[in-house]
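INPUT
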Amino acid sequence: MTHSTGIDPNLPQVQASAKPRPKTLQERIDEFPWWVGGIFVIAIGAFYLVTTQTSFGEALNFIRIGIGITITTTLYAYSIALVIGLVAGLGRISRNVVVRNLSTLYVELVRGIPILVLIFYIALVAVPDSLGVFKTLGAWLTSNGLGFIGQPLAAINNDSISLNVRAIIALSVTYGAFLAEIFRAGIQSIGKGQMEAARSLGMSYGQAMRYVILPQAIRNVLPALGNDFVAMVKDSSLVSVLAVRDITQVARLYAGRTFRFREAYTILAILYLGMTLILSLVVRVLERRLHGNSRK
Amino acid sequence: MATAASKNIIEIRNLHKYFGDVQALRGVNLNVERGKVVVIVGPSGSGKSTLLRCINHLEVETEGEVWVDGKRLSEKNKDINSIRAEIGMVFQLFNLFPHLSVLDNIVLAQRVVRGRKKDEAVQIAHEQLKRVGISEKADNFPGQLSGGQQQRVAIARALAMNPKIMLFDEPTSALDPEMIKEVLDVMLALAKDGMTMVCVTHEMGFARAAADEVIFMDHGLIVEKGSPDAVFNHPQEERTKLFLSQILSH
Ligand SMILES: Nc1ncnc2c1ncn2[C@@H]1O[C@H](COP(=O)(O)OP(=O)(O)OP(=O)(O)O)[C@@H](O)[C@H]1O
Ligand SMILES: [Mg+2]
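OUTPUT
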């Protein structure tokens, strides 16, 4: 009864492909990843500069102090952006008119404003203004006998939220909108039969999302999420405008103090290149692993 | 009106359904008694799938009433999930969850909808897999199964919820001919066990063997209904005769 096809469905469904024809020299030359060689040369050059020229060595020693801030800012901001993105992405396809339009408004606003401007605006306008709201709320609560919530709220002032934290808020709000679009596309890429099957079994919309749609959608968009993580590492350099001491800011300080612009910005560029290349490699390996495992 | 004690487990009154300007159903009335097997036939676009999908509210009626087991389906009915849990549905394209193993496909809804403990859900899943004849595939993923096997898993997944009604929407029409029988055999056994079934299918053999009532639909209306013998061998309506001559001629 089970062997109706005569083919064992356990066998991998790979069709025996013809043995590949050996490649010609021209094809090998065309296909060789020469750019990797270029990267290699840059790496060796950088190593040479840093070890032989004391000015480059000094620049590296100074600038690498900022690596910690760059990495933690990116990690915090990306984690928060994932949560915002998932919520806003679900909101974009919600059947609730208010939720759907608010989410779309958020995404469109962020996409229509340069990241640099958003960072200034969120850190220096939006955060102080919402603190003002908290203060007023706190004072109101206190005057209404709810001092235990009101007083701590009223006590929050501009200084209690550092520029580092504001930078993280600004980056996560910005990237939340980008990730929202990725999540939305991922969810919409899952055939509607999946939602119907889940609902027909009695699952609620939320249960169907959580157990059936999102696991498949997120798996589909992992490469895109990885790419945006790499992009955020680079965009985190923008927070230097808030005087957050990431590598860009530290490099600027170093260049301003020593006038060694060549050293400072060469080292800075190579540090970013190193981080993004390593991360891209990780993303690619992850992607390949997923493809290898994917059960059709 | 319908009550839980009524012998009709499904009662459909004057059901209309519009998709924009398209009128998919134009006033359908249908009662299905407990334990009966109803087979729906009709040309493409006649509203068979729409009717079936209104029974578990995958489509919301534009006008009219659908009652299932004494409960009226409506947009405001907060109970819709618990009503759906009593109605199994089998789709043309199986719609198994590709990221879950066969076993987990069958366990998932039992746990999150029925709230069953893991051990119990797994045991029931194994029983249902045995019932549809593919116990040995429990740990495979859907993509590793043939179409016929996938459809039987889909049936097992629905049965594990202990539904009172099973809906089938052309369950064999996406299958290679040699796999159709294995699915029809499962459906026949189910009918023998006394399951209430509403099946959209053009498998005449199945209809003759299992159906208590055959319904012929055209243009969003039930044109003719009766026993398989009456509808297939002695159709009264011209449209039924035309349709039968078309599907029998190939
Ligand atoms: N989601 C939808 N949006 C718009 N029109 C639809 C939708 N679903 C069905 N229809 C239309 O409603 C009518 C009935 O469709 P339905 O799928 O119920 O027919 P059917 O009898 O199941 O046909 P088939 O044998 O091809 O499956 C058709 O004209 C179809 O185009
Ligand atoms: Mg149909």
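end of record. The interface with chain A takes residues 56, 58, 81-82, 84-89, 91, 93, 95-99, 108-109, 112-114, 133-134, 136-137, 140-146, 148-149, 154, 157-158, 161, 176, 178-179, 181-182, 185 of chain B (CB under 8 Å).
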